[in-house]
Amino acid sequence: MSVRRLAPDHVQPASFAFDAANENWADQQIAKYPQGRQASAVIPLLWKAQEQHQGWLPRVAIEAVAKKLDMAPMRVMEIATFYTMFNLQPVGEHFVQLCGTTPCALRGAEAIRKVCEEVIGPQSTVSADGKLSWLEVECLGACCNAPMAQINFDYYEDLTPENFRALLDDLRHGRPTRPGPQNGRSCSEPLGGGETLKDAALYDGTVIGAGDWQARIADQRKAAAEAAAAKAAAEAAAKTAEATPVAVETKPATETAAAGRPKPSEPRQPSGAAQDTPAANGKVSTPKTGTTAASAPAVERPPSPALPRKGGESSGAAGTTAESKPKLLAAARDGKPDDLSLIWGVGPKLATMLNGMGIWHFDQIAAWKAEELAWVDARLTGFKGRATRDDWISQAKKLSTGWRPDSALGDKPVK
Ligand code: FES
Q1: CA of 142 to the centre of ligand 1 (A)
Q2: Higher model confidence: residue 278 or residue 26?
């Protein structure tokens, strides 16, 4: 921290007064503050006085500001001597504020300082021609372009003794200069150009849908709402199926006993039961065969307000989804199963689950009717409703023709 004193008397002017334009500007600043709070305008007025007086504040300017604001001169003096943006000594036409803080020091600020001393002279003195003066200051916030200096209102960065010497020469002789990095780089990106975010597609809108982002977001919201509704419906149907005494048909041993394959997660299906197909009218009929059938009373259940009702799938009473067991295989034909994970929404876990149920090929799925789709959907433990939601039947029809999606994840169905 340097000692900040007023300039010696022999350089102090005899008087100071704002010119008409600045007087008007000062009045406008003062008017921004409530009555009795004019002192709040002290810094803007000191700044304007410095600007008018060739970049530095003489004693008479400080006193003029104090008088304008009806403040004690010492109060204004305290402010002017505290803030380093107020120059208390004369400065050159081009006032160099050289950063000497650690990042700039590590990047060569000491060599720049030597150039200042050689070309301009001692710190805080004006060169003989009045063109240049310099002062070492603390960090100016451009450390990523260190070393740097502020000259009047512009930053000059990435300085070297050579380019800085040339810069001072240009300023001294009135030649145009180019603020910013002096080594050719743009802003603070790497020398030689940016190395990231270079893909032109990032800037033409294609990544975010080429201006169609609102429609895309609306589609995403709609898909999410539909998925949530399908999930809720599937869960409700599964609960109903679990709570309903249904007669199911035991799978032939060849459909379920393939060694080494995970077994399907069948809901409680007693051995020897009949077809797993609740009545299409939503009323649950008494099972005709099997252990459960023998013990279950022949009743019609009252309608449940909590159950979803789909047109054509249920009505009136229980509101359950009609199910019918599809054709299943004990093993893949010729030992060559289709890659079911090419169906959008089917991953390795679901594919294994399907194989365990006896589903190995696209054409099996493609042949399903709605009731068979519902049968499978209700048995996708942890994924119930997925087959309906992702329209596996349509996907499988396409895949069974030999068509293949670009992505290994499959082709997301368009709704
Ligand atoms: S250290 Fe020099 S600008 Fe920050």
Answers
A1: 5
A2: 26
